[in-house]
Write a structure and sequence with these properties.
Radius of gyration of chain B: 17 Å
Largest sheet of chain C: none
Number of domains of chain B: 1
Shape of chain B: elongated
Structural class of chain B: alpha+beta
Strand content of chain C: under 5%
Structural class of chain C: mainly alpha
Distance between the termini of chain B: 12 Å
Chains: A mainly alpha (189), B alpha+beta (66), C mainly alpha (88)
Oligomer: heterotrimer
Mean pLDDT of chain C: 94
Strand order of the largest sheet of chain B: 1-2
Largest sheet of chain B: 2 strands, antiparallel
Distance between the termini of chain C: 16 Å
Number of strands of chain C: 0
Helix content of chain B: 10-25%
């Protein structure tokens, strides 16, 4: 089971009301390489991966939910007091028509999240390379999001999330190395 | 300039409507030079680690204005 | 009792976030380096450090965990009284 801890993994501050940026951040909320996709991808793959790397998939998958909550916090703060006119001007008119200011799992273009964004091949190497690619794509998305805002507080949280992708990518590559190793051989650095 | 950035020349055609940018850059973060993290890598102190997003100094990848 | 969202609150929350982050990083590292004794020892050290900070946070403010996982008796249902992470 999972237990909720009532705090963010990293402080999220935004310094201005910017619903346009909220729309762009939805890419990491309900987009193909977003945090929801990441969490569901890893936690689903772990049932059929060799025991040696189940722990890693469980822990990174769990951390992704903490990142999802950070992205939600950014979107929430950036839109919470915006008027319908402001939302419309930011390109969120169609979102408002369906959801008011509720969050929803779509990408920045309003396309709803779909399970076809993620994969589970059942082949441990193929699955781990999918995970490595997902981390690199998420890292790139964070770069473009950092480029798209001049809010230094928001950039600060986005830089934290980008760095987490770098660490996760290395851990998944280490998982590949662990699975490549024959039982009797010793890993060398 | 960060040593985690690479550049490549972008072809400029005679009829391109936008002013040519010349070069484009992309990131190569440090995880791509480590196959398996060796033990006892230098660490950041807890507050700095949180701020930078990693405990391990060699894994830190700056981006944008730092 | 509602929480006073003052400097002391944010500073204690920040301290907890920093300690917890070290534990997250060590956890992921240990997942692929389970035989690293030094990392294990550092993990245990931070678990102890965390206990003290969590105790301070929970007795000053509110429980951090649901379903009775927080290690403190409750005199009122603070879980729903204090603001949520995305609100502070």
């Amino acid at each position: 089971m999972w237990i909720y801890e009532k705090k963010l993994q990293y402080p999220v501050r935004v310094s201005k009301c910017d619903p346009m940026m909220a729309k762009l951040l939805m890419e990491q909320y309900g987009g193909a390489d977003g945090e929801l996709a990441a969490a569901l991808r890893y936690l689903n793959q772990r049932y059929t991966i060799p025991d040696k790397v189940i722990g890693l998939l469980t822990d990174i998958g769990t951390e992704e939910f903490a990142h999802l909550e950070m992205i939600a916090t950014m979107i929430y703060k950036l839109t919470k007091d915006a008027t319908p006119d402001q939302l419309k001007a930011a390109g969120l008119g169609p979102h408002f028509a369906a959801h008011d200011s509720a969050l929803f799992y779509t990408n920045a273009n309003g396309v709803p999240w779909t399970a076809s964004y993620i994969q589970a091949k059942g082949d441990p190497i193929a699955d781990l390379y999918e995970d490595i690619a997902a981390e690199e794509k998420a890292r790139a998305t964070y770069q473009w999001l950092i480029d798209l805002t001049d809010d230094v507080d928001l950039q600060d949280s986005l830089k934290f999330l980008r760095e987490r992708e770098v660490v996760h990518s290395l851990r998944f590559r280490e998982a590949v190395e662990i699975l490549k190793e024959k039982q009797s051989e010793k890993r060398f650095y | 300039m960060s040593d985690q950035v690479r550049y490549f020349e972008v072809f400029a055609g005679p009829f391109d409507p936008c002013p040519p940018i010349g070069y484009k850059s992309f990131q190569v973060p440090p995880n791509h030079f480590i196959t398996f993290q060796p033990p006892n890598l230098p660490q950041f102190q807890p507050y700095e680690a949180l701020k930078l997003g990693t405990l391990w100094q060699p894994l830190y990848s700056p981006y944008g204005s730092q | 009792m509602s929480i006073q969202l003052d400097e002391a609150y944010y500073s204690l929350l920040h301290e907890l976030q920093a300690i917890d982050f070290v534990l997250v990083e060590l956890q992921l590292y240990l997942d692929t380096h389970p035989n690293d004794a030094a990392a294990l020892q550092q993990f245990n050290q931070f678990v102890e450090l965390r206990k003290r900070v969590v105790h301070h946070y929970e007795t000053t403010y509110e429980p951090l965990l649901q379903f009775g996982r927080s290690n403190m008796p409750v005199s009122s249902w603070q879980w729903i009284e204090a603001p949520w992470p995305w609100q502070v």
